[in-house]
Sequence to fold (371 residues):
Amino acid sequence: MVADLARLVAIPSENPPCDNERIARHAAELLRRRTSADVRVERVSAGKFNVLARFGSPRVLWNAHLDTVPAGGEWTRPPHRLTREGSRLYGLGTCDTKGAFAALLSALSEVAPRRRADGRRPSPDLLVALTGDEEAGPGECVPALLRHPWRRGIQWGIVSEPTGGRVVTAHRAIYSIRVEFRGRTAHASRPERGRNAIDAAARFVTDLAVLRRRLARRSGAGFRGSILNVGTISGGIKTNMVADRCEVRIGRRTLPGERESTVVYEIAAVAREAARRFGCRAVSTCTFAGPGLSPGRSATPVAALRRAGAGPAVSVDFWSEAALFSRAGISSVVFGPGRIAQAHAPDEYVTLGSLARARDVYRAWLHSLDL
Fold:
């Protein structure tokens, strides 16, 4: 399991830029060598590939993504080399979510090996789907999977994300909002002749603090506070020109019942007022909308994982593609090794204990499917 994880970490699959063909083909080869699955690598679009492994007549889905966030510049250990220190395994993707695939592969190697001693091949009626573009939406890989013929007959699913070994049955919806400020350029020696879009954007970011405090006071369905984060800001041409463009990108993680139209309107209203102060225009657009996950019909996957030794059912603030599967009629929950605080961070890691527990849960769960 650790050796498999080391090789997975050594194959870069950062997104952006999203070129996951190499790791997809490596994962497919691991599944072919270790298990009885019928394995395919499917090209979705440039740089994006799905790996599908079919056991029997699939009625259950297990999904994880092979792409990672970019490593960034604050790592103190090599992001693409697995480093073991005590019980921790450091490396990009160890927690989110290459470690989960290594744990599942270990379990599959026992439950559904390439050949049994008697020559029969086991049939756990499972579809393992490794997708390649979860970390930078809107994704194409899950929609392609949902259109695939092998998806037919699947009743419920498990999506792997770092949940600390607990079963996630509910999470927030997520929206990405782009606000573009449009001004007018001029020579920097006569800035009054222009309309500085960066000035408007800076005021907008400051004014968002008021909206953020208002959102934090909301609550509902077991969640406290509606979340707003300013993710990126970029604009201008050069220092001797007044900036005529500036773009701010904002992430919103909402409460159940908050609508996309309201989410965009609240941000757009703040943007328009900031733009007006500096004689600019503001255009607000929702670039990605991910639905929330609600408990719904999740009793079957929850019960299956709990019987296999998983932790209790919980709600979380982070988003997952389980919501896309559930919306398509595949009742899904989220489960995996590691904790979300260790993901998307420098020196990402997963503990050996967390991997081992996930492997044991997967093994017990797979045995229950081996009919």
Summary: The chain has two domains: 2-171+292-369, 174-290. The longest strand covers residues 281-290. The chain is about 30% helix and 25% strand.
